[in-house]
Write a structure and sequence with these properties.
Elements: H1 2-5, H2 9-21, H3 31-53, H4 60-65, H5 67-82, E1 87-88, H6 89-95, H7 97-106, E2 114-115, H8 121-144, H9 148-174, H10 188-208, H11 218-229, H12 232-249, H13 253-273, H14 279-300, H15 302-310, H16 314-332, H17 343-346, H18 365-398, H19 402-421, H20 431-449, H21 457-464
Antiparallel strand pairs: 1-2
Helix pairs in contact: 2-3, 2-9, 3-8, 5-8, 5-18, 6-7, 8-20, 9-10, 9-12, 10-12, 10-13, 10-19, 10-20, 12-14, 13-14, 13-19, 16-18, 18-19, 18-20, 19-20
């Protein structure tokens, strides 16, 4: 395996560099920066394919085992590109009557022989290119992260990126007007979502480093705890505290809420599924919730988050209206949607006069995707996420390798937090967040299907069966 992977070392290095780069240029949420992301992923994919054809790279068991999610991902790409194909008006009117009606209305001649399902071809083409890059990155993750060291370094790269973002955001927030932390992102909520994903990976790594030894007495427990505090693991713990400080400083209600909820639920599920839950695991999860959000929050602004949660603002009222209008939009394009990325063009037809802001996104990823890709597209996306989360959940139950259990914990927590936050934000529309989320989905499959030469037989049983 190591010999076969040797030809992709430089591809792997550029892959790690991409993980650190994507949040830097405003979350890569500008045309030039997401173009860089797309070209970067395309070149890495082409380089890996060339190596594969020359026998220098190989697919590996993870890619083969993840066939269900790969089929769904390919179906999703085919579906998005299908929205761009001009169809005979008889077929398009049958598939999406409302879209065909608008194409007829926009036709200069008044007659139309063919029309695509999307109402904004340029936006859908742009979104299709992004989706292709995300899926390619997901596949790259499965084929590149096949050894224990590569998995570790990928988690370290994401933690390092999260810490850099946390330090920059915290210092910028604590200086001058002491406004909400936003890091290199434009929106603090998108920044909070990114920090939570990095925190999820950091917590998973920390859990993987815990000793599985039983503490028969409290004296033995405190001795082991003291030994743990003077090891490099304590340094990782402090880095996590740094990210928690930055998260609290964002004053993002759902950012902080999704972190607490996902950590609590994932921690409970992990302890229930673990056949040998240790005192150190329990203490770590409790400390992450109590110490970080109580003591740290007292000094760095939890009261602002609580205040924002308790306040009802005009903006929150507008968002509720936008969600309602977007649901009405979905009703007109129920199966195939109005075209991925077409929301800013189509939504103004449905927004009421009382809406005080010109919204380009629905502030609810589920409703926006439903309106743009319809029930079919939403089902494909949901299947990809559910299958990946189920893989991480199964790994948490079956794996005994602490590294794989830590990776599956990171995947479960990060996926859950991101999905919770998506109910009030449009994080999937931010390339840096979407790309990082694809890595978390890949972690779910990697934690389940990864097998090293030194893997114990009981870790092979669930794969072979």
């Amino acid at each position: 395996m190591e010999r076969s992977q040797a030809g992709s070392h430089w591809i792997y290095f550029l892959y790690l560099l991409l993980l650190i780069w994507v949040p830097l240029p405003l979350g890569s949420n500008r045309p030039w920066s997401w173009a860089v992301l797309e070209v970067w992923v395309l070149l890495l994919s082409m380089a890996w394919l060339v190596g594969y054809m020359r026998g220098r790279s190989f697919c590996g068991p993870i890619l083969h085992g993840a066939r269900p999610v790969l089929l769904c991902s390919i179906a999703w790409l085919a579906y998005v590109w299908f929205q761009l194909i001009p169809l005979p008006t008889g077929i398009s009117a049958w598939l999406s009557p409302e879209a065909t009606r608008w194409h007829h209305a926009a036709s200069l001649s008044g007659t139309l022989s063919a029309a695509p399902l999307t109402l904004d071809r340029y936006a859908t083409l742009d979104s299709a290119c992004k989706s292709t890059a995300y899926v390619a990155f997901f596949i790259l993750s499965l084929v590149l992260l096949q050894t224990r060291d590569r998995i570790r370094f990928a988690t370290y790269a994401l933690i390092a990126s999260g810490v850099l973002q946390a330090l920059y955001g915290a210092f910028a927030s604590l200086q001058g007007s002491a406004g909400p932390a936003a890091g290199t992102f434009v929106n603090r909520n998108h920044y909070a979502a990114y920090i939570v994903m990095c925190l999820s990976v950091g917590i998973g790594v920390l859990i993987a480093s815990l000793s599985g030894a039983k503490n028969h007495t409290w004296g033995q427990f405190f001795r082991n705890l003291f030994r743990w505090m003077i090891t490099p693991k304590m340094g990782l713990r402090l880095l996590l505290v740094t990210m928690v400080i930055a998260l609290v400083l964002t004053r993002s209600r759902m950012g902080n809420g999704s972190f607490c909820i996902s950590l609590l639920i994932t921690g409970i599920v992990s302890l229930l599924l673990s056949k040998r839950a240790t005192q150190s695991s329990i203490v770590l999860i409790i400390s992450l919730i109590v110490i970080d959000l109580t003591i740290v929050g007292t000094y760095f602004g939890t009261e602002y988050v609580v205040q924002r949660v308790s306040e009802t603002t005009l903006q929150s009222g507008d968002r509720a209206d936008v969600t309602r209008y977007a649901i009405n939009m979905w009703k007109d394009y129920p199966l195939f949607g109005s075209g991925l990325g077409s929301f800013p063009v189509v939504f103004p037809r449905y927004s009421g006069e009382g809406t005080s802001v010109a919204y380009t996104h629905a502030h609810n990823d589920y409703i926006e995707f439903a309106a743009e890709v319809g029930f079919i597209g939403l089902s494909l996306l949901g299947t990809i996420v559910v299958l990946s989360y189920a893989a991480a959940l199964r790994a948490q139950h079956l794996r005994r390798d602490p590294v794989m259990r830590g990776v599956s914990f990171a995947a479960m927590m990060g996926i859950m937090a991101f999905m919770i936050h998506g109910s009030v934000e449009f994080n999937f529309q931010i390339p840096a967040n979407a790309l990082t989320f694809m890595l978390l989905l890949a972690f779910g499959w990697i934690s389940l299907l990864h097998v090293d030469d030194d893997t114990k037989p009981r870790d092979r049983e669930f794969r072979d069966g």
